[in-house]
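Quick one:
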Amino acid sequence: MKLQLKQLKTKLLLFIEEKNMQTTKNVTVSCEMWLKSLEQMEHAEVRRLITEDKVRPDGRKVDEIRPLDAVVDYLPRVHGSGLFTRGTNSGSFSL
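Output:
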């Protein structure tokens, strides 16, 4: 779902940039206005999916958590290091 929204947003922005500026009823609409409107629609749809359909943008149900993974001492020659991953997000540390 999230990937589809990103692809749609990219296609729409490319279309707007290609046309440079769109005119509707003698009112010039800038790319920034289109982007703001698109973000508001995206926010409303994501909110609706979570509250009504009980599905998150990445396809998980509301009671599912992302996979969790941790690795320690993955860097050589440091006092300590670690890698923490949850879903597609990750963080690392070293001492």
